[in-house]
Amino acid sequence: QVQLVESGGGLVQAGGSLRLSCVASGRTFSRFDMGWFRQAPGKERELVAAISSGGITSYADSVKGRFTISRDNAKNTVYLQMDSLKLGDTAVYYCAAKLLFGPYNYWGQGTQVTVSS
Predict the structure, then answer these.
(1) I need a labelling partner for 28 at 20 to 30 A (CA). Which of 14, 71, 108, 112 fits?
(2) How confident is the model at residue 102, as a pLDDT?
């Protein structure tokens, strides 16, 4: 069982930056692939960025070059650095975890990110 707790969301002006953090419980964090998802009102949840247990990263085209996902296994934490934020980045952001070849089946409660003009 893994419990995930996100933090770092808030209100920021377009062009600004935020860093989201997700702390995981348990001693097997390093085995999990981690992802950041987001869901805007009226839209489906989408995968924004992912990092494998081995540190391989991937990004949605909409955030490539602006967002950076990283992990610190010693702190059981995954981060999402968000730069050059746009109005369209406004959403609830969720941290999620999965094991290799499995679905994302562990989810945090979400943190709101609002980008204003």
Answers:
(1) 112
(2) 85
Query: What would the DSSP string read from start to end of 49-79?
Result: EEE-TT--EEE-TTTTTTEEEEEEGGGTEEE
What letter would DSSP give residue 14?
Answer: T
The pLDDT, as a whole number, for residue 45 is: 97
Residue pLDDT, tens place only, 48-107: 999 999 999 999 999 999 999 999 999 999 999 999 999 999 999 999 999 988 899 999
Side chain identity, residue 49: A
Question: C-alpha distances in angstroms, 33 versus 8, 11, 51, 78, 86?
Answer: 21, 28, 6, 10, 27
Rounded to whole angstroms, the Cα distance separating 2 from 98 reads 10
Residue 20 and residue 27: Cα distance in Å, rounded?
Answer: 21
**Res. 27: pLDDT tops 80:** no
Beta bridge mates, 112: 92
Max CA distance (Å), the chain: 42
